[in-house]
Specification:
mainly beta, Immunoglobulin-like, seven-stranded mixed β-sheet, 3 helices, disordered N terminus
Length: 806
């Protein structure tokens, strides 16, 4: 236990024992649980509190705090609303710290004080126990009389300065006899006592808190007691300073005077009567009542009137010259105000001022009407949040308190553009000032002030905003304001409905999407040619064809700008078209020369080619070009070309016929006609092959659907039975000299007719090509070689030289 200086320089005696009460991370810690303080002084009670920072995903916040000593309907009564403490109680807080300050302590303030806090969590209320026990007391002088007392005096009396608060042993005491300071530094004092003597004591350094004066002998003595040790009043107002006095002798004179800060008045034999002081001329009255009570009244107070005032009397040969403190007057500017305090039963009103603690002469107003019967500093009636309330003391009236009016939520005029600076302002008239809460799309925002500032507003900030204004009287809500952040289109993206290959005949949708506000208009392009304009953001192909292949992109546009998407390649896959077959060279070819059979078909992906000869079970060759390096009569016959990819296959046939010399002229005519047809087909296919689309989709020329395939190992797909082969039959005639005419159709076997009928049943077309030679050949059979050119050969005449020519 020690002696501690409380805030304001007053003495507080503490039992320094910390107590922690906790439950599931909830707790209150009191710095001390027992405090003893002097009457008239001030005291501070300290504590800290804690609570879970987050419960069930909700951040915890403290909404209400209070100190209390008693309950009403099982609810704590906030000390600030208790008339007993009106104007004498203050709360202060730091980070999870709580302090209660009580000024002008009275013995009735002795009680157990507890702290309570309320959070936003369901059931999140906590009261700290056991609280702080405060004992308020003063000094008393005890007189222990000796046995040598006579009727008018005691030879010696022992005096004891005591307090219910145990004082430190090193404390130094001050003794007063008949209001005059005398020698003595300990708690005990021995003196020769007369019947008119009075005594008082105090602790050194705190003379402003002396004990009441007591008579050293008997029940009547010379003494002065002040009603208040300190008084505060407003400038321009009036104040009454009162004291009681007594003497066992007849009093001949009395007066009020003002002590100077230098205390020189103590040594003045005759202090100046205030009624004769020019500073107080016309402003001072002394009111006397029966029972020895004197009241000094000062009107039209100024700050210069702030001082300590004393009462003095003279009784025959006795002169009261008090070293004891009188009444200290402080004159300040008016600060009358109504304090609104939340309680579980509704808002409470207290007329508060730093000067008027403990006063009862108040007037309350509801709107502009005086409320009869309400004279206490605490308003005890019902508070209607729709009305205004104020209080008055003498001629001074507080500002009214009222709930917040409906807040006005303002946003900048005109369009709100992305990346611009935007401020939303919520304003409401309220007293006490309102606290603001912001909401976006009905979700609480962390902003608590009157403004939300966006240094660079984004589209994600678009939404419906509103705010609430709240004080202890009520909460009101603003109208909704929609923030619509405008911006030019962002880079569009093009998506294709099909994630797999795009097959001819399938349904395909191209979608262009671009973030923009207002919504963008779209324009579609294929190879920079406009396809579609307007609001439509899709292109739909119900049955896509190879002609739809190409490079597509879209453009999105609104009033604030336009932007193009990246390109997307639409590559439509399809099976081989009906192959075109040809023979080269187209000029007359000498027997034994090389003959090329060429097969071409448009397909995506590019087709592979396989050659078959009638009546042979295995493929004759693979690749787009089949080369016979040493052409002989036995090479005559029907040849098939099959073009195949994973989407399907098509076949065409070529017939090489050996013609007699008589047929030579006719064959030449047929060959010429066939040559012209092949040239036309080749030109058309080559134009098709060189479309710009293929260059753009593949970053170069896409593998040609008709590209030459070199001869190599024959694939399994090429080894189908002849019955499975389909295609068009092209006839070629080879003409020999007359002595070899018997070789005509020599290699045509009956099986060919059967296969021909099967192929025709598949609705394949047959093309006829004629190759003619001048004679039969006894050369070896055909040889197969790979050919590296992607060429379209024409028909040729194979001419055999005279066998007898050397």
């Amino acid at each position: 236990m020690g002696l501690t200086a409380a805030a304001g320089g007053f003495v507080v005696f503490l039992l320094s024992v910390s107590v922690i009460q906790a439950q599931n991370d909830w707790g209150v810690t009191y710095t001390s649980t027992n405090i003893c303080a002097l009457k008239g002084s001030s005291v501070e009670l300290h504590c800290t509190y804690r609570y879970p920072s987050r419960i069930n995903g909700i951040d915890s916040t403290v909404e209400r705090t209070l100190w209390f000593t008693k309950l009403q309907d099982e609810e704590p009564v906030d000390l600030r609303t208790d008339p007993q403490y009106a104007g004498r109680v203050e709360y202060s807080y730091d980070v999870n710290g709580c302090t209660l300050r009580i000024t002008d302590l009275r013995e009735s303030d002795s009680a157990v004080y507890k702290f309570r806090f309320i959070t936003n969590q369901p059931g999140g209320k906590f009261i700290g126990s056991p609280g702080v026990t405060l004992t308020v007391t003063g000094f008393q002088v005890q007189v222990l009389k000796s046995k040598s007392c006579r009727i008018e005096s005691c030879a010696w009396s022992e005096l004891k300065c005591s307090s219910s608060c145990r004082l430190p042993s090193q404390s130094s005491y001050i003794w007063y006899k008949n209001g005059q300071k005398v020698l003595g530094k300990t708690s005990s004092h021995i003196d020769y006592v007369y019947s008119g003597d009075s005594y008082s004591c105090a602790v050194k350094g705190y003379e402003h808190l002396p004990s009441p004066s007591v008579c050293g002998y008997g029940y009547s003595c010379n003494r002065v007691t002040y009603t208040h040790r300190s008084i505060c009043a407003f400038k321009g107002s009036s104040v009454n300073i009162s004291s009681t006095y007594s003497s066992y002798r007849s009093i001949t004179s009395k007066l009020w005077f003002r002590s100077e800060h230098s205390r020189q008045w103590v040594y003045q034999s005759r202090p100046k009567d205030l009624r004769k002081d020019p500073q107080y001329a016309g402003r001072v009255q002394v009111l006397e009542t029966e029972g020895g009570r004197s009241t000094l009244r000062i009107t039209e107070l100024t700050e210069r009137d702030s001082a300590q005032y004393h009462f003095k009397f003279t009784a025959r040969s006795f002169d009261w010259r008090s070293s004891l403190p009188g009444t200290t007057l402080t004159v300040t500017d008016p600060d009358l105000q109504v304090q609104v305090i939340w309680s579980s039963t509704g808002p409470k009103l207290v007329c508060h001022s730093s000067c008027l603690a403990g006063r009862t002469s108040f007037v309350w107003f509801e709107n502009e009407t005086e409320i009869q019967g309400e004279t206490f500093s605490s308003y005890l009636g019902h508070v209607d949040p729709t009305n205004w309330y104020s209080c008055a003391h003498e001629t001074y009236r507080s500002l009214p308190v009222y709930a917040p009016v409906v807040p006005l939520l303002m946003r900048p005029p005109g369009d709100i553009m992305r990346d611009s600076s935007v401020t939303l302002t919520c304003s409401s008239s309220a007293h006490p000032p309102a606290k603001y809460t912001w909401y976006k799309n009905n979700l609480t925002l962390p902003n608590k002030g009157t403004q939300i500032m966006f240094k660079s507003i984004q589209s994600s900030d678009s939404g419906e905003y509103y705010c609430t204004a709240e004080n202890e009287l009520a909460k009101t809500t603003s109208e909704y304001v929609f923030v619509n952040v405008k911006y030019a289109p962002k880079l569009p993206s093009v998506s294709v409905s099909s994630f797999a290959e795009i097959v001819e005949g399938s349904s395909v949708t191209l979608t262009c999407s671009s973030d923009a506000n207002p919504a963008a208009n779209y324009t579609w392009y294929k190879e920079d040619q406009t396809l579609l304009e307007g609001l439509k953001d899709i292109i739909h192909f119900s049955s896509i064809s190879s002609n739809d292949s190409g490079i597509y992109h879209c453009q999105s546009e609104n009033q604030y700008g336009r932007i193009n998407s990246s390109s997307v390649c639409i590559d439509v896959k399809y099976g081989p078209r009906l192959p075109s077959v040809s023979v080269s060279p187209s000029a007359e070819i000498v027997e034994g020369s090389s003959v090329n059979l060429t097969c071409s078909s448009d397909a995506n992906p590019a087709a592979t080619y396989t050659w078959y000869k009638e009546d042979e079970d295995s493929p004759t060759a693979s690749g787009q070009i089949f080369t016979i390096t040493d052409f002989r009569a036995e090479h005559s016959g029907n040849y098939y070309c099959e073009a195949r990819n994973k989407r399907g296959f098509k076949k065409s046939a070529l017939r090489l016929i050996v013609l007699a010399g008589a047929w030579k002229s006719a064959a030449i005519g047929v060959t010429t006609a066939a040559l012209l047809a092949v040239i036309l087909i080749a030109v058309l296919l080559r134009i098709r092959r060189h479309k710009p689309f293929r260059l753009q989709c593949w970053g170069g020329e896409r593998p040609d659907n008709r590209a030459q395939l070199k001869m190599g190992p024959v694939s399994a797909a090429a080894q189908r039975r002849p019955e499975e082969r389909q295609g068009d039959l092209h006839y070629a005639s080879i003409s020999f000299s007359p002595n070899e005419a018997d070789a005509l159709y020599s290699n045509i076997r009956p099986a060919w007719a059967r296969r021909q009928r099967e192929e025709e049943s598949k609705e394949d077309d047959v093309d006829y090509t004629t190759i003619k030679t001048d004679g039969a050949s006894s050369a070896p059979g055909p040889t197969r070689q790979q050919h590296g050119e992607d060429s379209f050969a024409l028909y040729s005449t194979v001419s055999r030289s005279n066998m007898n020519t050397p």
